[in-house]
Design a protein that fits this description.
Order of helices and strands: EEHEEHEHEEEHHEHHEEEHHEHEEHEEHE
Helix content: 25-40%
Low-confidence stretches: none
Strand order of the largest sheet: 9-10-11-12-13-8-14
Distance between the termini: 64 Å
Shape: globular
Radius of gyration: 24 Å
Number of helices: 12
Strand content: 25-35%
């Protein structure tokens, strides 16, 4: 133990205290250091792309999946102190397509020139306080014509279980194969222990002809039902066409309403407005929200974009944050028709619930 002993009016330092002080100081200065990551790979348009990322942690996999056709190389080029970041930014921006900075929040007041702030993730929250008619009123029209019709067509039902054996069945037969297949080399798989610990409201199993074909783990937190993980039995391709995920969303909303919850937390999604998961959650009437303390902030600067990078940005409009507001940021590039244009989705607060405004960045 570190102890100061007073003897005969003098303070004596017990051996080992100086070492402990040294270790504390070393840890403190280590926390002041960040890594400079260099990411290199081939884009979906078959061009080379270099991205730099200054952070204590690696860049989220969803960004890599959007910008690269396959898993890129990620190397730590150097380690620098926080106060060295502005100088390093000036060096990097001359030789990279994109630059991400994720460190302390105060840097957004220093790195202002050309940077935009984006949340690492956003949450999508569904209000279920109203009656069933009021809740369904917020569903998008296309959802009513497709998902709800298929749910009736296939005669789905559900059951809730907290049985440890069934939780393990969900984990092994649904969650692992579904997540692995969906995200492939970018998949992050939690352990069975984590899934068991977080599943305080049970597993919702979707059933057809009395067989469990899909599931979702749920957590209870005060008046909110939190959806944690999804799965499809053995990741069977046949079931993707049968609106299993849509049926799970619908029954989760139904269950939450029946159990007296006021909100359904549909979980974190990437801050990319063309992301399929974000769009699907949005169709159920959920509202986008950034939760401080649960999601950090990135600073992003477009530095030396080639034609491929401009197309990727046009296909992936971002959710930016400023003054506590969420702002959709669309990128335009020549005559290129973006992904949302092809889907006939207009970026607006009317379509994306939770956006406060929209801005367009011209990349030409």
């Amino acid at each position: 133990m570190n102890t100061l002993v007073k003897a005969a009016g003098k303070i004596k330092i017990i051996p080992g205290l100086l070492k402990d002080i040294y270790e504390e100081l070393r840890f403190f200065f280590k926390e002041l250091k960040v890594s400079v990551y260099r990411i290199e790979g081939t884009t979906p348009f078959q061009d080379k792309l270099t991205i730099y990322h200054i952070s204590r942690k690696r860049i989220p996999e969803y960004f890599l999946a959007k910008f690269y056709a396959e898993l890129p190389s990620v190397e730590i080029e150097s380690r620098i102190y926080l106060w060295q970041i502005p100088g390093r930014v000036k060096m990097i921006e001359k030789k990279t397509g994109l630059l991400f900075v994720r460190t302390h929040a105060f840097l957004k007041y220093i790195l202002r020139d050309g940077f935009i702030a984006i949340p690492e993730y956003i949450k999508q929250i569904l209000d279920v306080k109203g009656d069933e008619k009021e809740i369904k009123k917020n569903f998008h029209k296309g959802l009513k014509k497709t998902e709800l019709r298929r749910i009736r067509k296939y005669g789905y039902s559900y059951e809730i279980s907290t049985d440890p054996e069934k939780v393990e069945f969900f984990y092994q037969r649904m969650y692992i194969p579904f997540t692995s297949k969906r995200h492939q080399e970018y998949a992050h798989l939690d352990s069975l222990e984590i899934v068991q610990e977080e599943t305080t409201a049970g597993i919702m199993f979707l059933k057809k002809d009395n067989q469990c074909i899909g599931g979702a783990s749920m957590r209870k937190k005060a008046d909110t039902l939190i959806v944690k993980k999804f799965g499809i039995i053995d990741a069977d391709d046949m079931f993707y066409k049968h609106s299993i995920l849509g049926a799970l969303y619908y029954f989760i909303i139904t269950f939450a309403k029946e159990e007296g919850y006021k909100k359904v937390d549909l979980g974190f999604t990437p801050p990319i407005l063309s992301d399929g998961i974000l769009i699907f959650k949005n169709k159920w009437g959920s509202k986008m929200k950034h939760v401080w303390g649960e999601s950090s902030i990135f600073l992003l600067k477009i530095c030396q974009p080639n034609d491929s990078l401009k197309k990727i940005l046009a296909d992936n409009p971002l959710i930016t944050i400023g003054g506590g507001k969420l702002v959709g940021c669309a990128f335009s590039h020549s005559e290129y028709i973006s992904k949302l244009d092809r889907l006939n989705i207009k970026i607006s607060p009317d379509y994306f619930n939770g956006l406060d405004a929209v801005k367009v960045v011209n990349l030409n």
